[in-house]
């Protein structure tokens, strides 16, 4: 991206001109906006959001279940390889990224960018829980592999029913004492309300010169004759249409990002498609139940189920209220956003992505079968899954809620074959003037690391000048903490104190 010389948004006959336009007011856009405002206070930034406030789609706490992904308890990040060994590589990568997130949160708390830590983050044990001989052996092997890594050295493990009952009583209530079970625990986990964090960042941006436009739907992004990006916007309240322009555009519109990037016509989006999956969760706000569980507990996904379907029984703190959730139960909708259209999927099909999408469908019949079974599953069957975690659960205390949409990435691999990817994908034009994010988990939890990658790609000329400030924001910036135990200890002590995460 060419360096901007503009110091404020300019109004022209064609519309408002910005240095940067952010599309979507979720955790990704607000994180990037907060970073850029600190790095370049004089840059003009416009933010357009179709809904009436920030963080209402995938960043909303009820649409973003399982928040605080640190790879401490999510078993799909520590697979057993063909050699029989449990690999911790992916878990290390995600944990490094979440540690970066906590450092940036700490910086924002200290600088007053956001409020009290308790308004968006709480310390919470993370527990992995399994039953059966094979699964118990896997969890023991995982414990040994993780214990050897500095990032995970505080893990503890047991197969003792009484000890697990002390960690998470609901896992043991009503359970057969003869059943072999196993659990691993970290006391250093967290629960994050990304809706609250997003809205606090948006408020900060609005108070520091960013032009926030809620209720404004971006309909297209096109390259202008002057080389800038023209953003066509509709005011949903009045129906008025306008055009803004920007030197740089970030498309952080969740499931809506694919169509906008396709419309922008950049080569880098060719071959990409999206596979939408919705989710449902059982939720209880009954204090007699919720107060007896203080942990995120993750199990193993059923055979044939995608990684995003890993069952978990989670304590959640939403707007200061303590609740308990269990799920997910997968569903299917052609919407790319919870507030989107059923035409989102068919309208995303292009000549360049049709073949990869068909290949994904052909090679993932087990996923299709799984989704069909999930959609047609009875209420009693869904409660049976809850009973595997919480044997004495009563149905009267629980309600079924629909969580947000997740659009999984379909793309060509290095051999040109269509594959389904569970994760996030940062797409950027070759000249760095536009970028966007596709995909889902671990998404929000690793937003700072994803945005740092974006800065490297799209603002490379400024990185040497920005690096001292970035290292002030995140002391471990550019360094792997697992390889620096001393720095890891310093960073951990600081974030625990600042974010009030003492166990």
From TrEMBL:
Record has Transcription as a keyword: no
Question: What is the catalytic activity of this protein?
Answer: (S)-malate + a quinone = a quinol + oxaloacetate
* Group of enzyme by EC: oxidoreductase
- Lineage, top-rank taxon, reads Bacteria
* One Pfam entry name: Mqo
Which cofactor does the UniProt annotation name? Answer: FAD
| EC number of the protein | 1.1.5.4
Keyword Oxidoreductase: yes or no?
A: yes
UniProt KW keywords: FAD, Flavoprotein, Oxidoreductase, Tricarboxylic acid cycle
What InterPro entries does UniProt report for this protein, alphabetically? FAD/NAD-bd_sf (IPR036188), MQO (IPR006231)
Which SUPFAM superfamilies does the entry link to? Answer: FAD/NAD(P)-binding domain
Q: Name one GO biological process term.
A: tricarboxylic acid cycle
This protein's pathway reads:
Carbohydrate metabolism; tricarboxylic acid cycle; oxaloacetate from (S)-malate (quinone route): step 1/1
Indicate the family of this protein: Belongs to the MQO family.
| Protein's recorded name | Probable malate:quinone oxidoreductase
Gene (name only): mqo
């Amino acid at each position: 991206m060419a360096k901007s010389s503009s110091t404020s948004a300019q109004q022209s006959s064609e519309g408002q001109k910005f240095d940067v336009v952010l599309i979507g007011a979720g955790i990704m856009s607000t994180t990037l906006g907060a970073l850029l405002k600190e790095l370049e206070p004089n840059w003009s930034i416009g933010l357009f959001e179709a809904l009436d406030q920030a963080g209402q789609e995938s960043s909303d706490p009820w649409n973003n279940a399982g928040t605080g992904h640190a790879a401490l308890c999510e078993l799909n990040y520590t697979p057993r390889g063909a050699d029989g060994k449990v690999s911790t590589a992916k878990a290390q990568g995600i944990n490094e990224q979440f540690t970066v997130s906590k450092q940036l949160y700490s910086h924002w708390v200290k600088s007053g960018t956001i409020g009290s830590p308790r308004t968006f983050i709480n310390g919470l044990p993370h527990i992995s829980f399994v039953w059966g001989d094979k699964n118990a052996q896997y969890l023991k092997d995982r414990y040994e592999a993780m214990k050897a890594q500095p990032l995970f050295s505080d893990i503890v493990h047991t197969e003792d029913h009484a000890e697990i009952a002390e960690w998470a009583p609901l896992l043991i209530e009503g359970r057969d004492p003869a059943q072999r079970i196993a659990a691993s625990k970290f006391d250093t986990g967290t629960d994050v309300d990304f809706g609250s964090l997003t809205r606090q960042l948006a408020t900060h941006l609005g108070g520091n010169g960013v032009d926030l436009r809620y209720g404004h739907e971006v309909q297209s992004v096109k390259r202008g004759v002057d080389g800038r990006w023209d953003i066509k916007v509709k005011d949903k309240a009045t129906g008025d249409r306008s055009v803004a322009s920007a030197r740089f555009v970030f498309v952080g519109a969740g499931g809506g990002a694919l169509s906008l990037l396709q419309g922008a016509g950049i080569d880098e989006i060719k071959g990409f498609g999206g596979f939408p999956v919705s989710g449902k969760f059982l939720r209880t706000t009954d204090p007699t139940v919720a107060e007896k569980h203080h942990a995120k507990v993750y199990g193993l996904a059923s055979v044939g189920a995608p990684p995003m379907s890993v069952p978990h029984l989670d304590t959640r703190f939403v707007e200061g209220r303590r609740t308990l959730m269990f799920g997910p139960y997968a569903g299917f909708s052609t919407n790319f956003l919870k507030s989107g259209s059923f035409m989102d999927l068919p309208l995303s099909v292009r000549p360049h992505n049709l073949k990869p999408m068909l290949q994904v469908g052909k090679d993932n019949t087990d996923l299709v079968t799984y989704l069909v079974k999930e959609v047609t599953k009875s209420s009693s069957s869904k409660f049976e899954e809850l009973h595997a975690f919480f044997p004495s659960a009563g149905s009267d205390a629980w309600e079924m809620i629909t969580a947000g949409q997740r659009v999984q990435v379909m793309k060509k691999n290095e051999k040109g074959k269509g594959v389904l990817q569970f994760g996030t994908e940062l797409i950027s034009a070759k000249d760095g003037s536009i970028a966007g994010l596709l995909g889902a988990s671990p998404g929000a939890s690793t937003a700072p690391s994803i945005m740092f990658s974006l800065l490297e790609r799209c603002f490379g000329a400024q990185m040497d000048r920005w690096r001292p400030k970035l290292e002030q924001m995140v002391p471990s910036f550019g360094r792997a903490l697992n390889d620096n135990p001393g720095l890891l200890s310093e960073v951990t002590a600081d974030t625990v104190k600042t974010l009030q995460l003492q166990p």
